[in-house]
Each structure stands twice: as C-alpha cells, then as structure tokens.
Amino acid sequence: MADYLPGPDADYQAWVANFVTYANANLAALGLTAADMTPITTAQTAWNTGFAAHIAAKAAAQAAKQTKDENRAALTGNLRPLVRRLQASAVVSDAEKAALGITVAQQPGPIGPPTTAPICSIECGARLQHTLRFVDEQTPTRKAKPAGVLGVEIWNHVGNAPPTGEGDLRFVAVDTSAPFVLNYNSADGGKTAYYWMRWVSPTGERGPWGEQSQATIAA
Question: Which fold has domain 118-216?
Fold first, then answer.
C-alpha cells in the first residue's frame, strides 16, 4: 500500500501545510484539541526552517561549483601554453620537467629482432590457389602479431621434393595481415608447395623460421 506522505521534500511540505491548515480549522469536527496539534505545528516550523536553509545552501553550492569550474578552466587555459613552452624548451631538462610534474617525452628504445616464429595453416581447396593464415607460436589462438612486428616474411618452394635449405626458397612477400592468397600457374597444378615463414620487424630484422608447412596445388 502506497504511503500517504509524499517522498519529494517540496510535495511533503505542501502536504503538511494542507494537513495542519485543515486540522486547525476543523478541530471540533475531527475530535481534536489545540493541544493535539501543538507538537505538529512546532515540528512543522522547525522543518520549514530547515528545508529553507537546505534550499539556500543547495543554491549556494551550485553557484560555488560553477564559479570553481570557471576559475579552473581559466587557470588551465593559462597553464597549458606555458607548459608547452617548457616542454619545447632546450634549456629545460627532463629532471626539471619531472620536478614540475609535467610530461617527460620518452625516447623509444630499439625494437630488436622478433624472438618467436609464426605458425602457418594452408587452405588449398580452390584450383591453383593457396590461402595462407598465420599466428604466433606463443599465442596460437589469437590473430594478433607479436608486439614490434611489421608482418610475416613468406618464402616457398614448388616441386616434388622439399627444399634442402634457404637456397632452394623463392621470396613471395611480406604480409602484414592474414590471410595471404597466392595464385599459381597451371603448370604448377598437382605439385607440392612448401612454405617457410618468419616474422620481420619494421627495421627489417628477422626472427627465427617457423616450422615448414606444405600443401598440394589443386589442378
């Protein structure tokens, strides 16, 4: 059952005012005396005073917050140009910037060669076409390349026997995102394509070779 007393303070104040006014005007009909209403009116006076003080304080707080926000925006607007000057200055050291609490630009360190190898899978259902997909050996369930890697270097050898070493391989491409689609000539149909892959960094440093993968080229 819903409470007869309103929840919002302003509605509550109006409800109490109506209750007190009606009750005082109809004491005898309601079977009440003035003494019955004294605690009510006393508490009503205290409530009205407190509610008015609350409204005034709330309005003052909102005004103070607006003033605070405006002052902060003005201060920030003056700070940022000066900080940009300090950050660009040749006479301000990184230690001084750190002491001021402003951003110190970090110099990127060398990336270094990749340390892991790719794993290659081959889709070979289409005629004279292989679709190559690759993931990292340390995160085989994720498609993402290792950090600091540009892409995968793809080499292959087509023939009836696997390559005996790097000298038998032909460079295909550096691919930055799987899959990579490789099309063959009709003369290659029925032959086996052997693939070697390794990660390469943006500076051209190469990682170790992955395991050799192979598939027949559908004629």
Answer: Immunoglobulin-like (2.60.40)
